Amino acid sequence: MSNDPGGMGAGGEVGDAHLSLSADAGAPMAEKYLPGAGLDEPVLVDVTEVRPELADSALVDAIVAADRTVRTEVGEPLLRMEDVSVVFGGLTALDSVSFDIRRGEILGLIGPNGAGKTTAFNAMTGVYRPTKGLVRFDGQVLGKAKRNQITRLGIARTFQNIRLFNEMTALENVVVGTDARHRTSVPGALLRTRRHRQEERDAIDRSMAILEFVGVGARATEKARNLSYGEQRRLEIARALATEPKLLCLDEPAAGFNPAEKEALMDLIRHIRDDGYTVLLIEHDMRLVRGVTDRIVVLEFGKVIAEGTPEDVTADPKVIAAYLGVPDEELAEGDADAPA
Ligand SMILES: Nc1ncnc2c1ncn2[C@@H]1O[C@H](COP(=O)(O)OP(=O)(O)OP(=O)(O)O)[C@@H](O)[C@H]1O
Question: Which GO biological process annotations does it have (predicted)?
Answer without folding.
Answer: D-alanine transmembrane transport; L-alanine transport; L-isoleucine import across plasma membrane; L-valine import across plasma membrane
